[in-house]
Amino acid sequence: MESKAPLDVIAASLRRERARAGLSLTEVAxxxxxxxxxxxQLESGTxxxxxxxxxxxxxxxxxxxxxxxxxxxxxxVVIRADEGPAIYSETKEYSATxxxxxxxxxxxxxxxxxxxxxxxxxxxxxxxxxxEHVLLSTxxxxxxxxxxxxxxxxxxxxxYPGDLPHIFQALEPNTSAVLIxxxx
Length: 184
Description:
Blueprint: H1 5-21, H2 25-32, H3 36-43, H4 51-61, H5 65-69, E1 86-88, E2 94-100, E3 108-115, E4 121-123, E5 130-138, E6 141-145, E7 150-152, E8 157-161, E9 166-170, E10 175-183
Antiparallel strand pairs: 1-2, 2-3, 3-10, 4-9, 5-8, 5-10, 6-7, 6-9
Helix pairs in contact: 2-3, 2-4
C-alpha cells in the first residue's frame, strides 16, 4: 500500500502557504486555474494531484515546488543576552533589543526589554489591532495602558491593546522582560 505521508505534507504545505499569502481558497483556485473542490480536497489530504496541478498551485502561491513537497524544518536561532540590534530611549534608561522579527505577511516582533527605575517609557498607540504581550523576567514593573497599568513581578505576564498609549515603568533596578508585539 502506498504511503499517505506525501499527501499529508502537500496538504499542510498548501494550507500554510495559502495562509502566508493571505488568500482565500477561492482566490488560489482561480489563480491556479483549478476547481475550488480540487484545492479543498488537496488541503484536506485527499485527492490525487497531478504534477501540473501542483505546479499551477505553486505559481498561484508564488512558491517553489519544493515548498509543497518538502516540509519546513525547524531552524534554531540563538541570540545571547548581549547580542542583537538594540534601540535606546533618548530620555530614559530604556532599551529594546529586537530578537525576532516576522517574515513577510506575519505580524509579530519579539523584543528583550531592559529598564531602570524612573518615570517610565510611554509609547504612543501603534497601528489598529496591535496587542502587546509582556513576560517579566527580572525586577518589578508597571506595564499596560497608560490609564490602567498592572504591576508585574518575575514570571508574571500581561497582554494589553498596543493600539492605545501604554507604559513600561521599572519599579526596581535590573528590570527586564520579553515583549511581543502582535498585529492582527
